[in-house]
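Structural prep section.
Before we set up the soaks we want a predicted structure of the protein with adenosine-5'-triphosphate in place, mainly to decide which crystallisation condition to try first. Input record follows.
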Amino acid sequence: MHRYKRIIDNHIYVMKLIRKGSRWFPFLLILFSIMRGINVFMMTTYLYQYVLNSLQEGEELLSIFLAVGGMSLFSLFYNIVLQYKNVAIEITSYKIEKQIQKTLQDKAVSVDLGCFENPEFYNCYVKALAEVSQRALRTLDNICDLIVNVITIGSIGTLIFMIDPIFVLLAVLPFAATILLGEKQNSLKYDRDMKNQEISREKDYVQRIFYLSEYAKEMRLTEMHKVMLRKMHETVLRLKANVKQYGYTIMGLEYSLAIFYDVVVYFSSIFIAAYKTLVSSTMLLGDCFVVINSITNISYIIGECGRNIMAFDENSHYIDNIRNFLEYENKTPDNINGEPAGPLEKMTFRNVSFSYEGQGMETLKDISLNISAGKKIAIVGHNGAGKSTLVRLLLHFYEPTSGSVEYNGKSIDEYQISSYRKQFSTVFQDFHLFSSATIAENVMACGHLLEWQKVEAQKALQKSGIYEKVNSLPKKMDTIVGKEFDLDGAVFSVGETQKLAIARAIAKNTEIVILDEPSSALDPIAENKIFESIFENFRDKTVIYILHRLSSAILADKIYLLEEGRIIEQGTHSELIAMNGKYADMFRKQAEKYVNFEEGGIT
Ligand code: ATP
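Run finished without errors. Recording the tokens verbatim:
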């Protein structure tokens, strides 16, 4: 019972999804299906029976002509609607597909960041993406086909029943066979497809690697391409084995069904009808024609009906994937009834500890810190100390395992995530420029760029020190980023990309700015300049910046030194130097390198 309820629920769910793209589309298709069912009955069965029997029984020619004329007119009208429907379906399908993809993409950007590190979730996402648009329309098609088939079976079945009930019995046998074997066939096909998709994910990754520009250099300079090709070869072998494993069983089931149709249904019913008409003369010619012509048709349609019903089950499996993804509940859910976040007064980490899912070890341990509005905070520490993780928690990408992150005295859970995140501009280490968008669009990062926003983009580019380069490009700020979609596209060095990232942060003009290694790719002079520009541009803002080179930490109001997930030292640069602890040691070692370099080389 639960299974059938789930199937019905899933179909209602998918209809709602389709109606988001086009409100009336499902109803119009259903209406059309009813017309199609009537047309099939009239033109493939009733017309012949009526004409042959009427002639054999000596009916008036005029009334035969009138009836045939009426049926032909209906069929003509149906065919006009059919042509219109074919065009309308093509146009509307795109609209529906776009809307469904949008629903999925909206969900994809709202799920926890951690989801993308979880293979189970990722598989679910890939399955949903691969299936969603096609499957939704296929589900609707299946409902429409079922309607046509039910009308056809109902009408032709009644006609055949009136001729002789034995033919109805012969016609329904394939239905029972389809139900019996179809369920097995469906679950086999589903298992095969799901395994294929899982294996294909790795294959798709390898394919991507070969055309993505960020991998191009490593692929040429190392033997990684061989490793990747081997992976690809292995996945193809696994795909082959999977298809083979299921293929023969599915083929066997299909063959059994075909034999059943041919031997049991067709031959026996043709023999009985011919015998009754030609030998025992107990059947009219029109009725014999209906049986011979329609029994194959109707038993096929009954079989189809069985397949339609089984397809409800099959589609429901796939809809489960779509639902699992769209109904996924975030571990850091948005508090839609929460308060909008106002301007920052202070942010607090109160005894925060955190471990990534599936990792026993804590990445952050008992972190407590305070950040007041307008302050410049530097977070320093060795690789893997937990600096970026701290920032991710601050941005509410993850939930602390214990303790709380507070904003203006309240846990950040109490704010609407979107309004909370709007308070921050960020520059991450792995900042990405988006190909196919212009430089101005990349800087402003908003839906539709207006003229005044272009002016803002220009100012931001000037402030981050990359405007000269942008201005030298043929289309200036309107140049497309990357060469993937435009041969005249702009290619930026890593350092220039970081400057563009800073321009994006400047343009966003928020109260809090987070910079995760904003200068890691810059030479010391450029780094100095960029920090001068950061401190100049974000003079009135709260700035939290992560860095390895401590020369720029000097400017901070407070420095936190992290080691193995703990804050081990904190204070201003002079306080930490006076403390003569690990920070002072790190600072001295880095400074020595520069001194030695100036004196004749790095030691
Ligand atoms: P770096 O200076 O190298 O950028 P960091 O101090 O910013 O390092 P984090 O990126 O916060 O360090 O990582 C801290 C630890 O958490 C590392 O050991 C890292 O392997 C681990 N880690 C980071 N991200 C994840 C993740 N998504 N899942 C599991 N572990 C992670």
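Observations: Residues 597-603 have pLDDT under 50 and may be disordered.
Flagged for discussion at group meeting.
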